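Morning!

This is the sequence you dropped in the shared folder:
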Amino acid sequence: QDAIDRKEKRSETFKTAVHGLETGTSALKVEELGRRAPQWVRDNLVTMCMRCKEPFNAIMRRRHHCRACGYVVCARCSDYKAELQYDGNRLNRVCQECYIFLTGHVVLEDREGKHKGILEKGAAEISGRSLLCSSLQLLDKNGKGGTRGWFVIPQDDPLVLYIYAAPQDVRAHTSIPLLGYQVKDLPQSDSRHLFQLVQSRQVYTFVADTEELKQRWMRAMARSAAGITLSEEEEEDADS
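The structure's back. Tokens below.
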């Protein structure tokens, strides 16, 4: 009975897991798992395993694709084989979640019960219901180098900026609580569209790809810094 309950729980969570690997991608329905070839998530869209969230590296943790759901996973999380109907019922490499769903077998290791931390929100998941999301560059303290990543202000956590290394990562590498910050415009430098978040001695300098995108981010961050939790459209509707 415990095995049945676990499998049913996995089935429900899988409906979310396989729904829309990225915006604009046709969703793989749960009943089609193993019956239809999935659309693979591209390697360059993730920097960590989409199951255990461990970062990839060239030597010890290589990328693999689950042949059932298309997720990019590490060797440990894809060390399972299941028969896939779309491949003539031949055994294929699959991730742990797909293995449990397709075979009904219970795996002793179970990470499902772990509490989802503040950073453990998938980029694709929260980007689909965000106040604003896009690629930005966050400069280092000397203003010369920096890290390019995927930045999101989610609707359900509108006072926090989440920073991902890639738009399909399943865990943010850091977050910035925006409340109380000041948003500062900077003059264009070397065709770079610069702006800052400033609070006391803490300063973050960002580079947007266009002036229009910069202005959108400045408005969104200023609203979050002021504690405004509604989008501009929602606030206009409320006023009317």
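Headline: The domain at 23-103 is CATH 3.30.40.10 (Herpes Virus-1).

More detail when I'm at my desk.
O.
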